[in-house]
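Tokens as discussed.
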């Protein structure tokens, strides 16, 4: 019975894939959703993954702070405004979760050399999408623009700092974003995988407090700027 069920599933999945491939890549495909992108305004949503990093600039040459990246996730919505046949204005607010571990090589204590930076971002990107000529049911595109990000896990209002094992960053940051993707037109919806780079424009580090007990900070004093950068992989559905 199990073998029969597996065989049926394999046959169905093979047939489904062959129909999808035929509609997308055959010499004379059936044109799906031919007038969908001619709408003035349409909406969608996306799911995806991210990998965030930090770019450090230092005041004085020193051992680089090491960043251990992890894979986070993205979820959000898309509002697409058609400006011209090949140009669209997109607003893609979304929730991004990520985590980075910072290792300070000049510090040896177990409580000092590692700082965990968990971030929950609400991102507000405003992008221009430049689409190529549609070929059958496939249409590649480029996109780029600016974004502002609210970090809900910034610790920006905390009076504690690294001396109390609390790494602080600013709540709001600004970025530019560039990427590319492909629209695949199926019978019922548009599937758009894309990859994008995010590059911080503003320094987001909050320096440690200066006190008589701690006049210098081994964590933040030598950092001239700290900016986020990331790679996003999104799967959008319209």
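Sequence:
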């Amino acid at each position: 019975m199990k073998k029969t069920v597996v065989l049926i599933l394999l046959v169905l999945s093979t047939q489904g894939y062959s129909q999808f491939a035929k509609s997308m890549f055959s010499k004379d495909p059936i044109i799906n959703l031919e007038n969908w992108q001619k709408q003035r305004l349409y909406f969608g949503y996306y799911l995806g993954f991210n990998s965030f990093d930090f770019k450090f600039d230092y005041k004085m040459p020193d051992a680089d702070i090491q960043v251990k990246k992890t894979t986070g996730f993205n979820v959000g919505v898309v509002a697409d405004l058609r400006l011209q046949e090949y140009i669209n204005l997109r607003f893609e607010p979304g929730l991004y979760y990520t985590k980075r571990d910072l290792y300070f090589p000049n510090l040896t204590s177990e409580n000092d050399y590692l700082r965990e930076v968990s971030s929950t971002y609400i991102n507000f990107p405003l992008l221009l999408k430049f689409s190529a000529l549609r070929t059958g049911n496939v249409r590649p595109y480029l996109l780029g623009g600016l974004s502002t990000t609210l970090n809900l896990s910034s610790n920006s209002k905390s009076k504690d700092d690294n001396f109390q094992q609390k790494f602080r960053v600013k709540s709001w940051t600004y970025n530019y974003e560039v990427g590319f993707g492909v629209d695949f037109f199926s019978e019922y919806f548009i599937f758009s995988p894309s990859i994008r780079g995010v590059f911080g424009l503003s320094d987001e580090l909050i320096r440690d407090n200066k006190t008589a007990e701690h006049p210098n900070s081994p964590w933040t004093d030598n950092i001239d700027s700290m900016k986020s950068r990331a790679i996003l992989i999104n799967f959008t559905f319209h």
